[in-house]
Amino acid sequence: MTIARVRAASMPRGTRPLVLLVGLLLFACGRGADLDAQNQARRALRAADEPVLLVLEGNPFEMDQARLNGLISAEMAAGISGMSARFATSPETAAAPEPRLVMILNPLNEPAPAVVCAAPASVATAPAIEQMRIVAAFCDRDQVLGTARTEAAVAGPTDQRFRRLLWRTASQVFPDDYEETYGFGILPRSLDFGLGGSFGK
């Protein structure tokens, strides 16, 4: 029998659930720190003045640019769960030049996030034929706060799959921080301490 098992066996029965709960809370704190590190983009977006600048490169369906700008801005905002956001593709309309969301529609290569933030216009793009790719980054000057690379079969700008692709991109750049904020979902589903129960006598 290991030392840990001996110690667990020697504990009063009423204290074991309490020890388990403390251990799970310590684990949750560590997991929360990981989520916190991943959600820089979401925190920066929440703190930013709106509308936030959206820099768009590429026009894969060769559609009217104003229509494309409006579609991307609206659907990216709709894809962020748990908080509201507004984007503007015009620097004159945006509240500030930084932070900004940069999106490359159907790039020919796989640009590094640093390139997406620093020189998005240098990334070559192509028309979408069968597959549509998006590379996105939320930037504060040259600092990369969050990124996403998504892809899907899309027939055109009115294809619902295009909107779903934009929603998925938004959810990756600005991941939902519900568990980080409220702490739910950190315990295994098999554990249920109950609201009115006790730890034993």
Task: Give an overview of the whole structure.
Helix content is 39%, strand content 17%. It has helices at 3-10, 16-38, 40-47, 65-78, 113-118, 160-173, 178-182, and strands at 52-57, 87-88, 100-105, 131-140, 143-153. Residues 2-9, 27-37 and 182-201 have low confidence and may be disordered. The protein folds into two domains: 3-38; 40-176, no CATH class. With 201 residues, it is of the alpha/beta class. α4 packs across α6 (160-173). Strands 2-1-3-4-5 form a five-stranded mixed beta sheet. α4 (65-78) links the parallel β1 (52-57) and β2 (87-88). It has seven helices and five strands.
Characteristics of this structure?
201 residues; disordered N terminus; disordered C terminus; alpha/beta; 5 strands
Number of domains: 2
Q: Main beta sheet, described?
A: 5 strands, mixed
Envelope shape: globular
Adjacency order of strands in the biggest sheet: 2-1-3-4-5
Distance between the termini: 26 Å
Structural class of the helices, strands and pairings?
alpha/beta
Strand and helix order: HHHEHEEHEEHH
The percentage of residues in β strands lies in 15-25%
Mean pLDDT across every amino acid position: 81
Q: What's the alpha carbon Rg, rounded to whole Å? A: 23 Å
